[in-house]
Amino acid sequence: MVQQEVPSPIDFTNLQEARHWARTAMDRPFRMDMFNEFAKSFQVNRFENALELGSGPGFLAEYLCQRIPDIALTLLDFSDAMHELARERLAQFRQPIEFLRKDFKDPDWGCGMRRYSCVVSIQAVHELRHKSFARALHEQVKDVLVDGGVYLVCDHFFGPDGMQNDQLYMTPDEQVSCMQSAGFDTEVLLRKGSLQLIQAIPKSLGNTHTSTV
Fold first, then answer.
1. What distance in Å separates the CA atoms of residue 80 and residue 12, rounded to the nearest whole number?
2. Are the C-beta atoms of 131 and 170 separated by less than 8 Å?
3. C-alpha distances in Å from residue 208, one per residue of 2, 153, 186
């Protein structure tokens, strides 16, 4: 059965709406805590390059560029408006940054792409507009990871401390089991507020372990 997508209240392809959203997005609680965990993983693992899915106005990319001087980033987003905002935000940095206009809802989004030592996503998986589509996305990510690559995913979760739409958002346990069913070993790096950050390694490459916090 084809799932009914949950409509988005924002048109991210509209520059005015995208800019208005970006003005308040960083004020939301615990985003900086998650950004710090991303940066710690980059510093520990010394990733050569990274692909961000649903990169938006470049908030995470800016944070990483400030702290990882030799990182090469590829920012993937379906919205030219978001890429315009990201280019403005990131113009000050010397790191190589590539902008790709692709939609990760497209099952062929990864075709012909290079491979990355890390793929990251923050508050973007729910933009698939139904949680049932997440497993397919996670499976596709394996095709753009190098051997030994790491997938870092942060998103809102459904539950008493989280979001209230159980069609758009998974519970924390559902997020973990979805990634495991897509072929990853998982570790929860941080759960705070309504957000959970999961580190995932393709099972053929990593040791099987799952933990929660």
1. 9
2. yes
3. 32, 18, 8
- Sheet order of strands, 184-192 included: 97-101, 72-77, 49-53, 116-122, 145-156, 195-202, 184-192
Distance, in Å, from the CA atom of 212 to the CA atom of 196, rounded to the nearest integer, reads: 10
- Helix ranges restricted to H, the chain: 15-25, 31-45, 59-67, 80-90, 134-141, 172-181
Instruction: Say how far apart CA 161 and CA 14 lie, in whole Å.
Output: 31
Placement of tokens 């997508």 in the chain: 5
**Are 197 and 153 contacting, i.e. CB atoms less than 8 angstroms apart?**
yes
Is the pLDDT confidence value at 209 over 50?
no
The per-residue DSSP string of 15-63 comes to HHHHHHHHHHHTTSTTHHHHHHHHHHHHHHHT-SEEEEES-TTSHHHHH
In this structure, the number of other CB atoms found within 10 A of the CB of residue 12 comes to 20
What pLDDT score was predicted for residue 27? 81
Would you state the structure tokens that stand for residue 79, as one six-digit string?
A: 């919205």
Residues 194 and 52: their CA atoms lie apart, in Å, by: 21
Please state the rounded mean pLDDT for residues 70-78.
Answer: 97
Tell me the whole-structure pTM to 2 decimals: 0.93
Q: What is the pLDDT of residues 116-149, one digit of tens each?
A: 999 999 999 999 999 999 999 999 999 999 999 9
